[in-house]
Amino acid sequence: MIQLDREEEARLRQIFRELYQREGSYGLEQHRRLLQELYNQAREENRDIPLMDQLQGELEILDEEMTCLVGQPLKR
């Protein structure tokens, strides 16, 4: 797993929980699709590694939160 600093990780987890409360699993799924598209685009354009690491870290945290909140991981 990509390591984000503790504050960033806690902030992301809170954002994902709030998104789930407002929009349910659909909101989390939409956000995950967007993050994945950004990651894929960065990879295709050979963007800098820190950006890709940040996006990968966010995807991993979102997957963990989805599993905790919904009880199952997102289907990819």
Structure description:
This protein is mainly alpha-helical and 76 residues long. The protein has one domain. Helix 1 packs across helix 2. The chain is globular and about 35 Å long. The two termini are 18 Å apart. The mean pLDDT is 85.
The backbone outline, from C-alpha atoms, is globular
Number of strands: 0
Give the helix proportion (percent range). over 70%
Mean pLDDT: 85
What does the oligomeric state look like here? Answer: single chain
Strand content: under 5%
Summing up helix and strand content along with how strands pair, one would put the structural category as mainly alpha
Q: How many domain regions? A: 1
Q: What's the alpha carbon Rg, rounded to whole Å? A: 12 Å
Sketch the topology as an H/E string, one letter per element.
Answer: HH
Helix-strand blueprint:
Layout: H1 6-44, H2 49-70
Helix pairs in contact: 1-2
Question: What structural keywords apply?
Answer:
single chain, 76 residues, mainly alpha, 0% strand, globular
Would you summarize the structure shown here?
The chain has helices at 6-44, 49-70. With 76 residues, it is mainly α. It has one domain.
